[in-house]
């Protein structure tokens, strides 16, 4: 194998995105449990924590993860069962299960492809895939533990749908992937071996 490998970049960005996503969700839903919201940019942007008193608390290991992720609170966060902008969320359990399977398949595909020879030597591709992988795993965690994705970032000035850090990583990663696919020069072909 020739050329520099950016596997570390893909895996490092994925780990950063995942921990930042889960940490920001933990902080927001724990700190805003009683306040409900915190205006970060008055008139424009705030963190908002919404709860669903009818959402069941699980038993066993999932209960431990739920209570840890909510700071020990018994009322579960309101979740998005669908994808971005709530698409496909009407079916609740089915939608969440479907998107959880899609997320897991996407994560396996990204790892399989992104850590291989040529793709692992492309810096911008590794950055894009790392962000997408981290965002995918962050929302996958929520789907398994909470039955849907916890959203808390809200541009209320323009009534943008509530989202989270994982969504940001997915959108930025997908944008970089598109730019890389359109504008990156094709990989150089290996030099032909000299003939005798």
Please explain how this structure is put together:
It is a single chain. The chain has helices at 7-31, 60-69, 93-114, 123-146, 165-183; strands at 37-41, 45-48, 51-52, 76-77, 79-80, 149-150, 153-155. It has 196 residues and is mainly alpha-helical. It has one domain (7-183). The strands form 3 sheets. It has a 3-stranded antiparallel β-sheet, with no helix packed on it. Strands 3-4 form a two-stranded antiparallel sheet. Helix 1 runs parallel beside helix 4. The protein is globular. The mean pLDDT is 85.
Keywords for this entry:
196 residues; mainly alpha; two-stranded antiparallel ribbon; 5 helices; globular
- Give me the secondary-structure category: mainly alpha
Number of structurally distinct domains = 1
Strand content: 5-15%
Radius of gyration: 20 Å
Shape: globular
Strand count, sense and closure of the main sheet? Answer: 3 strands, antiparallel
Distance between the termini: 24 Å
Counting DSSP H or I runs of 4 or more residues, the number of helices is 5
Percent helix, as a range, is 40-55%
Note the run of SSEs as H and E.
HEEEHEEHHEEH
Q: Spatial order of the strands in the main sheet?
A: 1-2-7
Mean pLDDT value: 85
DSSP strand tally: 7
Uncertain residue segments = none
Active site: 151, 167
Catalytic activity: Release of signal peptides from bacterial membrane prolipoproteins. Hydrolyzes -Xaa-Yaa-Zaa-|-(S,diacylglyceryl)Cys-, in which Xaa is hydrophobic (preferably Leu), and Yaa (Ala or Ser) and Zaa (Gly or Ala) have small, neutral side chains
Keywords: Aspartyl protease, Cell membrane, Hydrolase, Lipoprotein, Membrane, Protease, Transmembrane, Transmembrane helix
Main location: membrane
């Amino acid at each position: 194998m020739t050329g520099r490998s950016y596997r570390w970049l893909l895996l490092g960005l994925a780990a950063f995105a995942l921990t930042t996503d889960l940490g920001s969700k933990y902080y927001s839903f724990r700190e805003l449990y009683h306040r409900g919201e915190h205006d970060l940019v008055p008139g424009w942007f705030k963190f908002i924590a919404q709860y669903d008193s009818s959402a069941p608390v699980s038993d066993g290991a999932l209960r431990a993860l739920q209570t840890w992720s909510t700071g020990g609170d018994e009322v579960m966060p309101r979740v998005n069962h669908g994808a971005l902008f709530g698409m496909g969320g009407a079916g609740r359990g089915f939608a969440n299960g479907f998107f959880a399977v899609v997320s897991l398949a996407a994560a396996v595909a990204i790892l399989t492809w992104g850590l291989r020879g040529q793709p692992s030597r492309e810096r911008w591709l590794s950055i894009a895939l790392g962000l997408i992988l981290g965002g995918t795993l962050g929302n996958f965690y929520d789907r398994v533990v909470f039955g849907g994705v916890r959203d808390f970032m809200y541009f209320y000035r323009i009534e943008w749908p509530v989202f989270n850090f994982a969504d940001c990583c997915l959108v930025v990663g997908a944008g970089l992937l598109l730019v890389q696919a359109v504008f990156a020069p094709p990989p150089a072909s290996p030099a032909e071996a000299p003939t005798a």
